[in-house]
Amino acid sequence: MSEFVQRCKLAVNGVLRPLGIQISMLQRGVSDLHVYEETERPEVPRYVNIGAGAFYHPYWHNLDNPNRYYQDVQGDNLHVRYDLTSHQPMPFEDASLKVAYTSHVIEHISDEDAAYLFGEVYRCLEPGGYFRITCPDMELEYGAYQRGDIGFWRWPNAYGLYNESIEQRFLDHFATALTQTHPSKHTLRLSDEEVRRIFSTMPKEEAFDYVISRLPEEVQKDHYGDHINWFSPEKVMWMLGDVGFSEVYESRYGQSHCPVLRNTVLFDSTVPELSLYVECRR
Question: What was the pLDDT predicted at 3?
Answer without folding.
Answer: 34
